[in-house]
Amino acid sequence: MSDSDKKDHTDESILQKLLGEIEQDRDRLKLQAHLLKADAKDEWDKVEKKWHHFKGNTQHVAHETKQVSTDLFAATQLLGEEIKAGLKRILKSL
Fold first, then answer.
1. Model pTM?
2. For position 65, what pLDDT does the model report?
3. Residues 6+ apart with CB under 8 A from 82
């Protein structure tokens, strides 16, 4: 085998090794991206449930009375903050 053939073989081995490493990293990232989407979907579902509850509470509070119970107001505000934090987590994960 000539020096040129050895170099070609070495270059090919280097490229094959690099290709294998890239494929492995790509597959790992592809799986993580899929899992990230699933996590974001799960978080979205949780936030959506809270959103509908929050929306109903705010409408209820607005219509019931101008002298809203402190506890009801605090609970509704807390739920709103949880929704806000959940949406931020989703956006951060994308």
1. 0.49
2. 57
3. 50
Count the domains in the chain.
1
- What the block records as the tokens of 63 is 């219509």
Report d(CA 12, CA 6) in Å as an integer.
10
Cα-to-chain-centroid distance, residue 58: 28
Burial per residue of 60-80, b for 16 or more beta-carbon CB atoms within 10 angstroms, e otherwise? eeeeeeeeeeeeeeeebeebb
pLDDT of residue 62: 62
Q: Give every residue of the chain whose pLDDT is below 70, as ranges.
A: 1-9, 59, 61-68
Question: Can you tell me the distance from the alpha carbon of 11 to that of 89, in angstroms, rounded to the nearest whole number?
Answer: 45
Helices 3-64 and 70-93, interaxial angle, to 10°? 160
Domain residue limits at 52? 3-93
Query: How many residues are there in the chain?
Result: 94
